[in-house]
User: Fold these one by one.
Assistant:
Number 1:
Amino acid sequence: MSAALTPDPLDRYSRQVRFPALGEEGQRALMNSRVTLCGCGALGTVLANHLARAGVGHLRIIDRDFIETHNLQRQILFDEQDVADNLPKAEAAARKLRRINSTIEIEPVVTDIDHTNALALMGDADLILDGTDNFETRYLINDAAVKLGKPWIFGGVIGSEGQTMTILPGETPCLRCVIETAPPPGMTPTCETAGVLGPAVAIIASFEAVEAIKVLAGKKEALNRDLIMVDIWDWTFRQLKISGLFGKVDCPCCKHRKFEWLEGEMGSHTTALCGRNAVQVASRRPEPLQFPEMAERLKGVGEVRHNAFMLRFATEGYEFTVFPDGRAIIKGTNDIAKAKTLYSQFVGA
Amino acid sequence: MPVVRIPTPLRPQAAGQDKVEASGATVGEVLADLGRQHPAIQERLFDGAEIRRFVNIYVNNEDVRYLEDLETPVAEKDEVSIIPAVAGG
């Protein structure tokens, strides 16, 4: 037997190992690292794609949503078959990524990140990545990352512009130092109201990904310390200096270590999904829902179908997508109270 | 005269412009002049005399919160930027 016949696990990464600033040592660090990716939509699919190909050893991909046709314009890991199969995003991404790189561990988690599960989902990670589309989850990630002392990377995109910053708790300003509060609903555009270009998302997510590689490979000196802003329509690139905010801002999170989002004082779990005419109703259950029994119960009142990941049910002009953990997305209303009523009527209290 | 860079979501309140010239020797004075020219922006930026907490103001590339906030001096060729948080993704 010749040892030479055994392929070197580093071979598949040879083109990035040859990049001197990363090298073999950096590659081995990537292969031994764990990342928690929060959200697997537009930013998240680009991030997951980069990191899986780069050889990050363990990738936990968390997403609460399922795939719709209008996602395919920019969410690069999904295709029409995934829509037809009613797959949740985390599961579809994991299936695709396993075909891309079978040598790493990919752990899809279909859930809504909230104050009850954030620390458990992030506690074992070397790095946390923002692939979300809302500030509620970002402030929760920020609380968890600061509490755990773990680096995380923020990214946000709208239209043709985006922002990103790298947060090293105890060394750089945190998200709440820089953006003290999120704009109230209606005061800020969302991707649903203002649109979003795929290339803009891909650029911001790629910036996040290269920062991730630096963090995991231990190349801290090369990290971005600014708030980066890019607009690909009018060709602006700005590096706004934020490091002076560290310690200067009276930050409840990183200065006073008051974790309002993590303690559940801030944030709601039933939320209107802006611009989608849909509401997410969260109702955590100790046991997973039994879809075959539910389908049996609901088939007299509307059209119902299910797979292992979700049950979809349409009645009275509303469409319910129910997940095993009890969470549901109800299409056809923006009214939270109405959605809660519908949930208790058809899913159960 | 200093120039204020208007972010995309506020351009409808500034007659569609991405830059507006505004006079003043401090950030507060420049933004007050912007508000006089485009009153609809005033309300979006300020809650009474305070800048709304979800709006950040930069002079050139520096955040005014580690300078002198609204008292931060602004020179003739300086650029004042209104930077909103970008939510999507």
Number 2:
Amino acid sequence: MSLIDFLQRVLGKETNTSKNVAKERLRLVLVHDRSSISPHILNALKEDMIKVISTYMEIDEDALEVSLSNEDDSVALVANIPVVKMKRDYQG
Amino acid sequence: MGEVIVVTSGKGGVGKTTTTANIGTGLASLGKKVVLVDTDIGLRNLDVVMGLENRIVYDLIDVSDGNCRLKQALIKDKRFDDRLFLLPAAQTKDKNAISEQQMKDLCATLKEEFDYTIIDCPAGIEQGFKNAIAGAEKALVITTPEVSAVRDADRIIGLLEAAELPDPRLIINRLRPAMVKQGDMMDIDDMIDILAVSLLGVVPEDEKIVVSTNRGEPAVLDEMSLAGEAYRNISRRLTGEEVPLMNLDVNDGLMGRLRKLFGFSK
């Protein structure tokens, strides 16, 4: 432990403790692990998205792609949804 | 009709066999009738941890292949008259020597006679794991406070759910309270939060485990062992009793143990 680490701990600033590093790394790796073992959850999400979006616009359901992407220190849900036609008559 | 409980972890070396031996011995100490089944075919170890290695004649595969009757293969632990038995794994076969259906049939037979059938699962997620969980009704997941073990525990929890063995209970093994206090080890809440399962117990790191394994006498029988106390608590929780988590506070540690040594403990 360096002196700076020690002082931070004494002052109650524990963001750099190795346990917090472990937790953060685990959180990220598990998002990825869990998504890779349950494609059916992604499918369910896809179907729900289609339902919601179809209220507002006509989309190409077969070409719709949903996936999780893991970049540096964050995980993003990436959706590619081709729009066929806007619904002009939608009344909010 | 008894319960069939499988002890899993995914990662090797986190304490599945030690936990199986201690919980089984703990439940037998509480007067329950218990059988331990080692499914780690080819790498059997539950026999040495229990100190029963010299008494093996037949094994799990002899039973499933019909080379002997089930009763002939069960090794009686003489420390508990007629309450604790071991069904050892075969050492010279591989994980495919038994099928999932054969394990289901075996567990169905064992639970007729025993209050608790405890299955020691091999490390990994392949056929050995599938065999071990095939006949189980409940699962315990063992982890240690390390990223690798927690990650593998998460994977195992997912696979248990997929196999319709939901709500596994977590045992956190080899926790070092002094390191937790320093912020250098994940604490109990961190792991429950990450894994989102219910906690069955926490076993502190304890050198006495090494000694008890050396001797082939489960630590749960050692009144002075902290890990033994944790396993006694876990055994009682398995029977449905409400037992609070033991105090692992570092400040109390040494004094608490001294007090206990001199008979002042509560």
